[in-house]
Write a structure and sequence with these properties.
Elements lengths: L16 H18 L7 E4 L31 H9 L5 H4 L2 E2 L23 E4 L12 H15 L12 H9 L3 H23 L1 E3 L4 E3 L2 H9 L2 H27 L10 H20 L15 H18 L6 H22 L9 E2 L1 H34 L1
Parallel strand pairs: 2-6
Antiparallel strand pairs: 1-3, 4-5
Helix pairs in contact: 1-9, 1-12, 4-10, 6-7, 6-8, 6-12, 8-9, 8-11, 8-12, 10-11, 11-12
Bound molecules: flavin-adenine dinucleotide.
Length: 388
């Protein structure tokens, strides 16, 4: 297969690569603007929780690892009060309501959720803390990825994280779809994070941020399975937004209210456009093919347990900025899983926090940027091949 030029159907999804390329060209400018708006650029989280699984070294002190907290005065007061007053709201009143969380997760959740009402944590302006190369790596990062794949991907690659592509493919083919989907989602997220690192790489000699093709080829470009998985994760996120669309569109878009009229209208308009395009692109992923066999309830619980573990593993990431984006994107994937698998066909029961909605759309945006970056890296690779 030519470098980074996947074609045909995306494994375990129900659409083709070219469908996703087309939908991404439409979605990416909308998402890029959406995440700059007042509602979507602030996310509250606690970056100082202890790692619950092992003794983690102190957070790294590299300059590029640090996170700048938002000034509380930037945060609209009514987010906290209006969301608090919606706690007791009947979901049937409006179909989709924001809710507050007092405990770490409810039955419907696939991951630990923190939100506007959490006593601990602080607001972060995501625009001021972009996800990019930080220099974090070594044993600490390897341990996190190892714990994710070895211990929490249903032991699919217990002793074989570095296994050959053929071996991995065989193991994946022989396992059930639910376990494959789980692995693909995480591998897709990992590929996306690697793509951002290589797309915004700090050249220590010049001090400039550059696009690093060698980095991308080593980590993603020369691994067709990882490129596939990146696309797969994107298709699942688009499906979750499509499923959420009627409720975003008809009932609760006004909940994106931020206090400033003009801003609110633009946010509503952007959310509607993203949702419309997610629907219009046709089916991308069929969640109904999962958890249908006998024993699937048990499998679903295991799936949830592993995903919740992974959300907690994010508190072990040893670089503050990587921890921020790791937590946000795991929360975004967890929200998508909740939309797809927790409410059967009764989205009237949807319960999402503001933090989950923000994480969902920011995660989709990060994946959208990665899918676009793959095209840029392919062009760079072709140009370089011609010159050589
Ligand atoms: P790693 O990316 O650490 O990968 C470890 C092993 O996993 C590889 O050797 C390979 O066997 C396997 N692997 C790699 N990619 C995939 C894939 N897509 N699917 C399946 N298996 C795979 N660094 C930054 O500079 N900026 C960040 O924002 C950042 N965020 C991070 C967030 C998290 C949650 C974590 C755990 C780490 C983050 N890092 C970040 C560190 C970064 O991901 C790498 O760990 C680090 O750059 C070292 O990379 P590496 O080449 O050794 O391989």
């Amino acid at each position: 297969q030519p470098y980074c030029s996947p074609s045909g159907p995306i494994s375990d999804a129900c659409c083709e690569f070219r469908t996703i390329q087309k939908v991404n060209s439409e979605l990416s400018p909308l998402l890029a603007e959406l995440v700059t708006t007042s509602f979507f650029r602030y996310w509250k989280t606690n970056l100082h929780k202890d790692c619950p699984f092992w003794q983690e070294n102190p957070l790294c002190i590299l300059r590029d690892c640090s996170v700048v907290e938002a000034d509380e005065s930037e945060i609209p007061e009514h987010w906290k009060t209006s969301a608090l007053s919606s706690v007791d709201q009947s979901p049937l009143d409006n179909g989709f309501s924001l809710m507050s969380k007092s405990c770490q997760w409810s039955e419907a959740d696939f991951c630990a959720v923190e939100d506007d009402f959490s006593a601990e944590g602080c607001y972060i302006n995501l625009l001021k803390n972009p996800e990019r190369f930080t220099g974090y790596g070594g044993e600490s990062a390897a341990r996190i990825w190892g714990a994710i794949y070895r211990e929490n991907c249903f032991n699919l690659f217990e002793n074989n994280l570095e296994g050959t592509l053929t071996n991995r493919r065989k193991e994946l083919e022989n396992t059930c779809m639910e376990k494959r989907v789980f692995y693909r989602l995480l591998s897709g997220l990992h590929a996306s994070i690697s793509t951002h690192i290589c797309d915004q790489w700090l050249d220590r000699k010049s001090g400039e941020w550059i696009r690093n093709l060698t980095c991308f080829s080593d980590r993603v470009g020369n691994h067709p399975d990882r490129v596939q998985n990146l696309y797969f994760t994107y298709t699942m996120m688009v499906r979750a937004v499509a499923k959420l669309a009627p409720y975003l569109r008809n009932h609760q878009v006004h909940q994106f209210c931020t206090g400033s009229g003009a801003d609110t209208h633009r946010i509503e308009d952007l959310v509607e456009q993203v949702a419309d395009k997610a629907v219009a692109c046709g089916p991308t992923f069929d969640e109904k093919t999962l958890f249908v066999d006998s024993g699937s309830m048990l499998l679903k619980e295991e799936f949830k347990t592993h995903f919740r573990n992974i959300s907690q593993i994010m508190d072990c990431v040893g670089c503050e900025k990587c921890r921020l984006w790791g937590k946000l994107q795991i929360s975004g994937l967890g929200t998508a899983l909740k939309i797809l698998f927790s409410y059967d066909d009764n989205p009237m029961l949807y319960r999402l926090t503001r933090g989950e909605v923000v994480a969902l759309f920011n995660t989709l945006n990060r994946l959208s940027e990665s899918v676009a970056a793959v095209d840029e890296f392919r062009a760079m690779h072709q140009k370089q091949a011609k010159e050589d």
